[in-house]
Fold:
Amino acid sequence: MPDNLVLDFFAGSGTTAHAVMNLNRADGGSRKYILVEMGEHFNTVILPRVKKVAFSDKWKGGQAVLGNGSQGMSHFVKYFDLEQYEDTLRRADYGNHAAPLFANTLEDLARYVFLRDLKLLDAVRLDLEGNQVVVALDKLYPGIDLAETLSCLTGKWIKRITADAVEFADGSTADLAAPRWDDVKPLIWW
Structure:
């Protein structure tokens, strides 16, 4: 079918993506694909292959053959890098601490609330006087695409992105410089 969704949960070298792209090029279809890969070679193998196939359908000796009926294609790739549960546990600090768990200091409260997770303690600051939680998302997830992340968290389609905000298709907006706590809370609490 020209509009199927193809799932490959062992993406390997990206052969499924390559085949779907070639089928779309051949019959004008609009098939989409989802690849799942645990390996570290997404950036070194799969993504370069997808870019290469999008650029041209004909290659020789590692070079694109331009002209002679070769075709490039418009292609959009979205990928998610998921943190593994084991990575989160590895960073958690359950060591013996001199202060009791509830010593009524802001630092102890934060350690308790955020399960002594060093990654969260670096990125999250409690402002009890202002009654808010301040999150430095770049410390929590380096290189985060906040607009796309908020879209995934809320289930809303993005209509427009500016330097300061993202506007969703339903007319609501989210501040990218200082996102609301309720919007980013699912990133923090497991």
In short: The beta strands are 5-8, 32-35, 59-60, 63-64, 124-127, 132-135, 158-161, 165-168, 173-175. The longest strand covers residues 5-8.
